[in-house]
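Tokens as discussed.
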């Protein structure tokens, strides 16, 4: 296991900054995710760590050595890396065994040791009985397990994942996600995972680095990123959020704010930032009971969507703002066209 450190890394493609002054530390045995939309720079950052791209500025260190930086560049095959790509990248003319054994053969490992290590890692990824099959005889999920086994067999210091589950259907994605997490907990290999899927990032990561247009927007544990977003971008990208612009802070001591639509609400926290928006998650809202309550906005239910374990309501307010409210299925329901009062629990209202 090795520590990874990126210091002020910038990568240009012509005049486009794919990565801009990006810094990151991944501790030994940690699993971090680079999360962001297409074009955010997350894959380029991973390719810089791998040595597939040279940074224009900054340094990359793996363990105790600089692998990219002024006057220094260690090629990919000397960085003790394992890599798992979006495309399975398995050789169709080689059996599962030979696909997985390839990194060991390249290093001159003797056949007996190859046999031991390949069969051991195939058992870990639940492919022990498929060693002599060819990729064409495997499902997409099984081929991705072959790619994972090949990345692990050489016992790398670091493993890099570039959107490895995006070609799989929903059920396979979930099972592969569980397998990756179980293997990480067992092997403790320092891991960097690239995805645009926030649910993958939340489920797998010790910490998440949220990127946009090559820049770091926020980093922290999954619950920190979700519960305490520092910008409208992060709040909207990590799960669903009601993002309401403010007109003013009415009373700092009482934490009263006036929304752009004129409504006055009390907030649980007001951070001193430039954006001045109120953020509250849909599942944190509820419809007010008959008893009088504070922190209410009245509106009309525009749509009702049944989602299995919950029901999503789109509520249009007098200021023509749309609120999303998600309630547990089986509880009190509202109908389309019904006038409701949406309660904003003070402790869940964050002004950033």
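Sequence:
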């Amino acid at each position: 296991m090795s520590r990874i450190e990126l210091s002020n890394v910038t990568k240009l493609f012509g005049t486009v900054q794919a990565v801009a002054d990006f810094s990151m530390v991944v501790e030994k045995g940690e699993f971090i995710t680079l999360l962001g939309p297409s074009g955010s720079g997350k894959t380029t950052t991973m390719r810089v760590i791998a040595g597939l791209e040279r940074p224009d500025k900054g340094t990359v260190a793996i363990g105790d050595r600089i692998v990219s930086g002024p006057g220094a560049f260690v090629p990919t095959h000397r960085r003790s890396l394992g890599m798992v790509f979006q495309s399975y990248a398995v050789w169709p003319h080689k059996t599962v065994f030979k696909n997985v054994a390839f990194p060991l053969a390249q290093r001159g490992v003797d056949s007996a040791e190859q046999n031991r290590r390949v069969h051991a890692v195939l058992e870990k990824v639940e492919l022990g009985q498929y060693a002599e099959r060819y990729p064409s005889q495997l499902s997409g999920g099984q081929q991705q397990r072959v790619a994972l086994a090949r990345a692990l067999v050489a016992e790398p210091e670091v493993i890099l994942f570039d959107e490895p589950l995006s070609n799989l259907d929903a059920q396979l994605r979930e099972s592969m996600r569980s397998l990756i997490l179980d293997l990480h907990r067992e092997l403790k290999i320092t891991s960097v995972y690239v995805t645009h899927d926030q649910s993958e990032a939340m489920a797998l990561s010790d910490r998440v680095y949220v990127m946009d247009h090559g820049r770091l927007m926020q980093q922290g544990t999954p619950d920190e990123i979700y519960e305490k977003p520092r910008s409208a971008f992060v709040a909207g990208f990590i799960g669903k959020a009601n993002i309401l612009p403010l007109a003013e802070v009415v009373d700092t001591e009482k934490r009263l704010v006036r929304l752009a639509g004129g409504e006055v609400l009390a907030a649980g926290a007001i951070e001193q930032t430039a954006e001045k928006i109120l953020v509250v998650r849909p599942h944190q809202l509820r419809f007010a009971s008959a008893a009088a309550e504070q922190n209410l906005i009245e509106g009309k239910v525009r749509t009702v969507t049944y989602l299995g374990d919950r029901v999503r309501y789109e509520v249009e307010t007098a200021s023509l703002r749309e609120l999303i409210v998600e309630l547990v299925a089986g509880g009190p329901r509202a109908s389309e066209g019904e006038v409701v009062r949406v309660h904003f629990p003070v402790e869940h209202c964050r002004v950033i």
